[in-house]
TrEMBL record:
Organism: Halomonas salipaludis
Region (Disordered): 80-104, 125-144
Official protein name in the record: Transposase/invertase (TIGR01784 family)
Taxonomy of the source species: Bacteria, Pseudomonadati, Pseudomonadota, Gammaproteobacteria, Oceanospirillales
Biased composition (Basic and acidic residues): 135-144
Length: 144
């Protein structure tokens, strides 16, 4: 699934605001003299737009925004929950990765301080590059 662009007008956690927008659109459709045609056009556009966004929401059964607004609200809510879950999962993965990198750097600093291993050996032990180790060695050298 491609990531959804956050354009500033909506974020997944703003489901209530999105439902209000759907309600306003339904109100506009209901007040339109050509409500059936307008409903069909807007419903078709909304389905295509959500598909284009990569929402992963099955809207095949959505035929009328006016008649099926509760179903749409339910689908959008599940989409928002899924987006929040994916965001939390990505955040946890990034946090773990940063933690592992920081641990490797801490170990490298300690090994540099011991002075018993070469940059290549420290790089092998920590998974960092020799360039990283060399830079860390320069940063921790006396006189800095």
């Amino acid at each position: 699934m491609k990531s959804l662009p956050h354009t500033g007008w909506w974020h997944p956690w703003q489901t209530h605001a999105l439902q209000q927008a759907v309600d306003r659109i339904v109100g506009i459709i209901q007040n339109d003299p050509h409500k059936e045609r307008t409903d069909a056009i807007i419903t078709r556009w909304l389905k295509r737009h959500l598909q284009w966004l990569g929402a992963g929401v099955n809207l095949e059964r959505l035929n009328s925004l006016v008649e099926d607004k509760d179903m749409l609200a339910e689908k959008l809510e599940s989409w928002a929950k899924r987006e929040r879950q994916e965001g939390r999962q990505e955040g946890r993965q990034e946090g773990r990765q940063e933690g592992r990198q920081e641990t490797s750097r801490d170990i490298a600093r300690k090994l540099i301080a011991l002075g018993a291993l070469s940059d290549a050996q420290i790089a092998e032990a920590t998974g960092l590059t020799e360039t990283d180790i060399g830079a860390m060695r320069r940063d921790t050298s006396p006189g800095r």
